[in-house]
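Z., the sequence and structure:
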Amino acid sequence: MLKNPSTKYRAFPPVQLADRRWPGRVLTAPPRWCSVDLRDGNQALAVPMNVGQKLELFQTLVKCGFKEIEVGFPSASNTEFAFNRRLIEENRAPADVWLQVLVQAREDLIERTFESLVGAKRAIIHLYNSTSPAQRRVVFGMSKEEIIQVAVRGAKWIQERLPRLKGTEVMLQYSPESFSATEVEFAKEISEAVMEVWRPTPERKMILNLPDTVEVAMPNVYADQIEWMCRNIKNRESLIVSLHTHNDRCTGVAATELGLLAGADRVEGTLFGNGERTGNLDIVTVALNLYAQGIHPGLDFSDLNAIRRVYENCTGMTVPARQPYAGELVFTAFSGSHQDAIKKGLAEGENGQRPYWDVPYLTIDPNDIGREYHEVIRVNSQSGKGGVAYLLESEFGIELPKDMQREFGPIANEEVDRLGREVSAADLKQMFWREYIERESPWKLLEFSAEPAVDAGGAKAIRCHGAVQRGEKKVSFDGKGNGPISGFVHGLQAAGAPKFEVAYYKEHALGAGEEATAIAYIQIKLADGKSRWGAAVDTNIEGASIKAVLGALNRL
């Protein structure tokens, strides 16, 4: 890297817009959406989609609710042309869906494009030519006037052929390609020259697409460019101003959102952002960003996993694990503090304690887009007690008391750290069973029974009889207390167990029906202040409780 990059690179000049208004605006409604997956997205694939794959992806886009879909560049290849014809001849496009086709300002390409559209119900013809200083100088070797003539000729060739699409509702679209790197005054001039040919009206608007073809500045500069155009171009009321951002600076989403604040009406992009170089705009992200603010985007992503599968099967691309909303890990927390906060937030919502979604670290409810809560928390060596407890409860119904979570969390983390990998809920259950449920040494229950009794003062009590194995020795005992647990503790201590008291007791059923079992959790405290937790499972509550006392003793 250069020590002084300013000797090679220069900052993009700001737009002169001292009274910009977009920073004070708020989005309150979704834009018009246009998917360009089948053109821009397809163009960026190492192996382009075949007709069958494009048909499958087209149907998925329709199902999502897209009403404008750029289906291809029909003059570019026989595959593109054939796909367009299949959509039309096989009546695959619903009557309310616009088929958008892209074409350069060349007469032979425009002619072929019109041939591909015969019989379509609705069509958007998207004309473009590049306008930036670098394109004018390096690619075309043309002056501004000559570049304007290219656009005007293309517009006229399209205008002349419109009668050939009898029965087709046609909308016209123009893009000064490389708009983001073009002087706004020249972008206005060339756009107005095209408008002079097409003569849009408020009743019959044309689309003016202003692409951030290559991100060359911060997104606020793009917003300034859009607002400048919206405020200065003539007959704004006859235009649908459209955005088409790329992601060279990784701010394509921000540029689109700011561009909408700046006055744009429409957005072009792809599912999950596939596109040339660093990609096109990710429409899923912008749409669900709106959704998270309480604005329905007008697109249906309620089964995002299924949409992602179709996208990956058709394109051969993979949605990254950390892709917003759609990635495998975006509703996953590995940090212990995050896991604990998510668990508490979900519990608050389930208890009806809040009217709106407000769960820490989760901007939307995963269920709304076809994700499930069991995907929210996973455990590795960075995790805390909250994540461990959540998985045990959500997968197996094991509801660990808070203090027991604090004891078992570090035990589980130490084991996970030793394994050096992420662990599943089943792994955690196995750890819990080894640590608590399967502890039968040095104390093991052999027999136990309890019956009602009366103490010396005439009060009701419980008398217990039992036997335990301590090492190689069988120890029998009798005890009395106000319940089976206290009677058992009394008898056990009389038989030589260390002095302790039961500090906490909780039990609940595991499962339901005839196969249901009970699990009990018990914390004991010794005279010196030390405490230990025990847990046990049995077919009845009493048996689980007694075994849990011994389990705690066995962990001293």
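DSSP finds 17 helices and 14 strands in the chain. The domain at 443-554 is CATH 3.30.160.270 (Double Stranded RNA Binding Domain).

Let me know what you think.
H.
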